[in-house]
Amino acid sequence: MSCSMFSLEGKTALITGGTQGLGLEFARALGRAGAEVVVTSRDLHKAEEAAAALTKETGKRAAGIALNVLEYAQIERAVSEVIEKFGHIDILINNAGVNVRKPILEYDEASWELVQGTNLKAPFLCAKAVVPHMIKRKFGRIINIASMLGTVALAERSAYCSSKGGLIQLTKVMALEWAEHNITANAVCPGPFATELNQIVMNNPEANQFFMNHLAIKRWGKPDELSGLLVYLASDASSFMTGSSIVIDGGWTAE
């Protein structure tokens, strides 16, 4: 296999929630592999700031767009803007996510809807807006950022676990429906990674020790340890892979 199969030159990637944490690392990885990258955030300044940093670091064109992934009209406008500026969208990474930690009996409806909407509904809406353009070009890579908690559970994560489990299943349906158009869909299921989203756990000695007790590799993952997989899934090297869910979790689910 030639290394050129991992090149993303000439490709454009749209990454939701791509201004911090894992999303920003994904944007860096794809840019370094040759892709032009568009990142989104509810905060336009934050998105534009991240895009400028990406261009400076990778030398590739990047853009930042303001987007609430819970609003389909906004998603359609964002997709049209990307098409107008870059000509096409080859890679969609549904990365935007949120977690609210509460026992089930204390879980309020608004928190449930926020988590389910951001983690499960938004990837459905984004794919619905982007895929027609991919079908026209007979090429597409959809990468849904799920979680190891879509396959195993933790207490006080009812909405998160169920939303990520649903995203894994949604990924399989996407794979089946769009394979004939040369569009693949795969899910990445990270375990404990040292991101802003997990600071509340990392800073709690008791909770952090619980995580350490379940990790074969006795540390939190570093965001750049997902980069190689993202480039692979976005590239021609993964052309026969679709409908898969790949867990990278330091050995947690190997127990």
TrEMBL record:
Name the UniProt key words of this record, in alphabetical order. Answer: Oxidoreductase
Family classification: Belongs to the short-chain dehydrogenases/reductases (SDR) family.
Single GO MF descriptor? oxidoreductase activity, acting on the CH-OH group of donors, NAD or NADP as acceptor
Q: Source species, please?
A: Paenibacillus montanisoli
Coiled-coil region: none
Sorted alphabetically, the Gene Ontology BP terms of this entry are:
bile acid metabolic process
This protein's record includes keyword Oxidoreductase:
yes
* Protein's UniProt name: 2-deoxy-D-gluconate 3-dehydrogenase
- Cross-referenced Pfam families: adh_short_C2 (PF13561)
Source organism superkingdom: Bacteria
